Amino acid sequence: STPSTQDGVLRPAFWLAGVGLLFVLGYRWTNARAAHETLHYVALPWDAAVPFWPWTIAPYLSLNLLLPLAFFTLRTPSALDAFGRRVVAVMLTCFAVFWCWPTGNIHALPHANWPWQALFNALREFEHPVNQLPSLHIAILALVWRALDGAVPRKARLPLAGMCGLIGLSTLTTWQHGLADVACGAALGALACWRLPR
């Protein structure tokens, strides 16, 4: 059944507020721990071949817009609740790994030209170059892509796929993550979609 207009606004708003609070607290908690722990570094041979494209910080940050959009796009309470549970599950899993096995960024981030450096600086105010594996960015992207793909009109699916593909690529070309981080994040997102019911 279609939710009422009020429920259609309040329910996703509550989910988004809860997820946002969990995200902020979880990252601060695990970043603080990583600052006092020995960091692990997981690099693959192919990581050295990944180019640095500073402009891709824009699509990287655009996930911060797609996630709220997904909460407000899902049409039924059951689909919304299933999506919310998946997001919470991958966040808690990532934070548990970050707490037990903190990892560092395998790349030394070069200076980017304006305006891209300003976006990197804004990102660094909150997201430190630690707790890389699994990539929470990729895990959330997988959930958002699946949720929106089933909710948007058919003609919007190809542009959505292109956007999500660019966001996924940007985790590498901004040197925010290595290939192992991305692979583990994608696996976590896929597992959450498979194991947690709709």
Give your account of this protein's structure.
There is one protein chain. The chain is an all-alpha fold and 198 residues long. It has helices spanning 5-34, 57-73, 77-100, 116-124, 136-149, 157-173, 179-195. It is globular. It starts with a helix and ends with a helix.
How do the strands and helices of this protein lay out in sequence?
Blueprint (H helix, E strand, L loop, with lengths): L4 H30 L22 H17 L3 H24 L15 H9 L11 H14 L7 H17 L5 H17 L3
Helix pairs in contact: 1-3, 2-5, 2-6, 3-5, 3-7, 5-6, 5-7
Keywords:
mainly alpha, disordered N terminus, globular
Low-confidence stretches: 1-5
How much helicity do the residues have?
Answer: 55-70%
- Count of DSSP strands: 0
Q: What's the mean pLDDT score?
A: 92
Structure at a glance:
This protein is an all-alpha fold and 198 residues long.
